[in-house]
Write a structure and sequence with these properties.
By secondary structure, the protein is mostly helical. Among the domains are: about 80 residues, Glutaredoxin, CATH 3.40.30.10; about 110 residues, Glutaredoxin, CATH 3.40.30.10. It is built from 15 helices and 2 strands. The protein has a two-stranded antiparallel ribbon with strand order 1-2. Helix 13 packs across helix 14. The radius of gyration is 24 Å and the shape is elongated. GO terms for molecular function: glutathione peroxidase activity; glutathione transferase activity.
Length: about 290
Amino acid sequence: MLFVTAVDMDYPEYTEELSRQFWMRVWSRDEGITEDEHFTQAAKKAGMKDDIIKKALKRSKDKDVADRLQAFADEARANGAFGAPTMIVHVNGEKEMLFGSDRFNILAEMLGEKFDGPQNQLSKNKILTRYKSKWKNMDLKLKPLSQDAVLQGSGNQLPGNVPIKMQYILQDLARLGQHNEVPFKIPSDLKDVMFVKGSRPAMLFLTAVDMNHPEYTEELSRQLWLRVWSRDEGITTDDDISEAATKAGIKKEMIVKCLNSAKEQYVSDQFKAYTDEALSLGVKYMKVH
């Protein structure tokens, strides 16, 4: 990074391609990026001439280059960055932060440009459900799981434990909702919803439904989500769950049966099995056979 910073300060026209070549060395060819020889090889592939490379190598050891790299890091933190890639977008006098390469579609929309690249996760999920009747070779199965358990089991911190990340996630969800025409609204007592009440009763009910009447899994999931993230309603009591199930088209006698089943150990075991499978593969995954 010190070498890239030196190049960026004196020869910024090479910054992008040099960054790409460093990435390719590590993540494509399993090569090093810690020695002068590594820097030289990457720089040559980036189109830099020998004399410029030598100057940049010498320059990268100067204190002002280290200071500039620190200044870039400080600027990123001041703008709310918590990882890479982070993009700061200035539109109509307002500053917005975007995180992750799967947000380029949002960036394009902000800039009034067309985006032809891959879709974000929310769009992927919509496409999957939309095309399940058209893609004859796909038998789509949606399964409930405990995201808290997956995060803890994988060693990740819960978003609420990283305030700057939580703040971004809420802003990002609102943007995604608008971009994908999903009615999103932050609950009035977010802390209570996420860290006190949780969603386990609803997930156990969803598991019971999935085990006995999987044809309702998708729509019930949608109705439970809408209650929390669109209408600021609960999903923890039997009444809450029954209302969601009714909107999903489930008959009353089936709802009562699944409410009772949701309290049985075998349903809890199945819910854990779904979660353990997700933990083995990574949450928000698509397992293809």
